[in-house]
Amino acid sequence: MAATIHSAPVPGLGASVVTIGAFDGVHMGHQALIRSVIASGRAQGLPVVAWTFDPPPKVFFGRAPLLMCAQEKVARIASLGVDHVILSHFDGAFRARSAESFMDDLAAMNPAEVWVGDDFRFGAMQRGDVDLLRSRFAVRLLTPVMCRKGQRISSSRIRSHWERGEFHRVRELVGWEDFYVHPAWETGW
């Protein structure tokens, strides 16, 4: 069954298992998180929702270049086996929403569990964090995924390798055989 794509929280779910993140690059750490969410959802007999943003917040704020276009990101997330993908447009209005408003939208999907990274922030001025999320939901954190050298796999680390021209490392940490390194990026951003 193919994932259903939404632009806002999924209406009408009696219960769900949700993961939320920028998922820029859908790298090996993201893949491990999404696979854990899918395993939990399947074990509970609940639909799995992956909620992401376009552009990713760091890209919106000009703190990072984009690793993957929205269409590719959604396709890769969907290919992992989630039931629903939410792609919210991240703009000035979304940025200004309170953490409480964001949690109200999340609550509308009746999550039995919410899976996020340990550094997850949300809401205006990034006031929401894992502790605030735990005040309303059962929150699960995935242990950070490490590469063979014992370093955490992250979008920031992937960008650092990219900036240094270490494209073999980028592909290794992203984990997609067909990950495309744009020629402009090979010559620098």
TrEMBL record:
Record pathway: Cofactor biosynthesis; FAD biosynthesis; FAD from FMN: step 1/1
InterPro entries xref list: FAD_synthase, Riboflavin_kinase, Rossmann-like_a/b/a_fold
SUPFAM superfamilies: Nucleotidylyl transferase
Keywords for this protein: ATP-binding, FAD, Flavoprotein, FMN, Nucleotide-binding, Nucleotidyltransferase, Transferase
Reaction(s) catalysed by this chain's protein: FMN + ATP + H(+) = FAD + diphosphate
Enzyme Commission number(s) of this protein: 2.7.7.2
Superkingdom of origin organism: Bacteria
FAD synthetase domain ranges (all copies): 15-157
Gene3D superfamilies listed in its UniProt record: HUPs (3.40.50.620)
Protein family according to the UniProt entry: Belongs to the RibF family.
Name of this protein: FAD synthase
